[in-house]
Structures are given as structure tokens and as C-alpha cells.
Amino acid sequence: MSAIITLTTDFGTQDAYVGALKGVLLGLCPSARIVDISHEIAPQDIMECAFVLREAAGYFPPGAIHLAVVDPGVGTDRKPVALRAGERFFTGPDNGIFPLVLDGAAPDACVQLDQRAYWRNDTPSQTFHGRDIFAPAAAHLASGVPIERLGSAIDQLAPMKWALPIMDDEGVQGWVVHIDRFGNCITNIAREMIEERRAGRPVKCFAGNAIIEGVQPAYAAAETGEPLLQYNSSCLLEVAVNAGSAAELLGIRKGNPVNILFS
Question: Is 114 exposed, middle or buried (0-12, 13-18, 19+ CB in 10 A)?
């Protein structure tokens, strides 16, 4: 079976950047199967990249290689890295993406990509390490090159942590961590955080300019244009509007608080 390489970037699709990545990947590993996770990450938004990649990576077969390029520190002394976690591989900048994707778990192997023989050339662009260092690393992994040959072993990645919800017997305070293209506002409040504490009590949510009662099983449980709470496909609480955008209707932005009270 051909190796799978996924791409998660903030490049968009109007420029040549994504095409250049794919050209390098196929030039070095013509049999690779390239899958686009997203190229619509907000520019320089490391946490959004990590959230989107984390939500998708676990559904790929063992051996998949995940290339992430959201790299505001390109050209600085931040490290280019590749790592193996279980049966998954990742490559990209050492700027906090991968500790977030792995929820702080240590990878099984991690290297700094300092072996120039596995770069695209000896003089990589100072503005496009995705093309010149990360994509070649992903292609070589797809071709069967052991990760240990790509660079020097390192034992620590640049840390970055999610904000964690605050919980007590009266409720949960969390934050909006992602707004999808439908305007659904996804929080960092997991289903079990609510269900283990509510003890059958009703749920009331304060989000944006709205107070929302109860958790619904589907979007259509609310009237068209009305807000609702529900658990999304990753069992995270989201604020939504049936046939509308919660972000627009309720004035919610990423990072805004969401307060849940049990009454």
C-alpha cells in the first residue's frame, strides 16, 4: 500500500505554495497518496493548526505521515523536526503544534531535521522550510527511510498547552477553541465534564449575547435561526444556531468564555 501523507497549512489555495509542497512530495516519492486536511488555517495560528490536525489525524491508517506547516518563526532558530508517536509520523516546525496534537504525550522518537542530505537542497529558502525541509522529510519517511536517519535525536519539543476548563459542582467555565466554517463555536468542554457533574440538573449556558437552556441531540431540535447547545462529533460542547452561524448571531469569537451552570 502506498504511504499516505497529509497536509495541514495556512497557505490557502490561491498561491503556488500548496502546489510546490505536492510537487516536492511526488518528486521524491511518486507513489505517495497525498490527502489535504486543510489549507484554510488562519494565518500563523498554531493552535488552530493543532486543533484541526488533532481532530483528523486519528482517523488515518497506521503509518500515515502528517505534514503541518504553520510556521510564523520560519527562518529563525526554531527547529525543524520529525517525530513518531505510536504508528503515526509528524513533521513540521517545533513551535508547539505537536505537543498540542499529542495532548502533551511524549513522542516515541523525535529528531531535529539537520541532515542536509535529506533536504531539497543545501540552501533552503529562509521563508519556505515547508517546501525545502519538511516536505522532503515527509517524502523520505513515505519512501521507508527510518526517522533516525533524518536528523539528530532530541528529547524535548517546544511546549504549548491548551487552556483547560475550570470546574466545580456548580458548573464549568470553558472557552471557544475553534469556529468552523458553519459558524459553530466549539469549546474545550468535553461531554464527560458536564455529564459527570450535572447529576440530572438542568444545564444553562452563557455564551456571547445569549443564555441557552439545555443540551440538544441535533441542530434541528431548535427552531430555525435559534441557538442551541449540543455535543459535536468529538464529544466537545458546541454553541450552534440551527441553519445559521452562532459566531455571527451571538457575537462569539475564538477565545471567548462559555459558562455552564447546573441549576
Answer: middle
Q: How many domains does the chain have?
A: 2
Q: What is the mean pLDDT of the chain?
A: 96
3-state secondary structure of 100: helix
Q: Are residues 14 and 138 in the same domain?
A: yes
pTM of the model: 0.94
Range(s) of the domain holding residue 137: 4-153
- What's the CA gap between 40 and 38, in Å, rounded? 5
* DSSP β-ladder status, 65-69 and 88-93: parallel
Q: What is the pLDDT of residues 26-47, one digit of tens each?
A: 999 999 999 999 999 999 999 9
The position carrying cell 513551535 is: 95
- Give me the helices (H) in the chain, please: 17-28, 46-57, 97-101, 129, 135-142, 191-198, 246-250
Residue whose entry in the numeric block shows the C-alpha cell 505521515: 65
Please check whether residue 161 lies inside any domain of the structure.
no
Same domain, residue pair 131 and 206: no
CB of 48 closer than 8 Å to CB of 178: yes
What pLDDT is stored for residue 1 in this prediction?
Answer: 64
- Identify whether 63 is part of a domain: yes
pLDDT tens column, 111-168: 999 999 999 999 999 999 999 999 999 999 999 999 999 999 999 999 998 889 999 9
Please list the residues that pair with 119 across neighbouring strands: none
Q: What is the identity of the amino acid at 31?
A: S
Nearest one of 102, 64, 82 to 148, comparing CA atoms: 82
Could you tell me which residues come within 8 angstroms of residue 122 by beta carbon, excluding any fewer than 6 positions away? 116
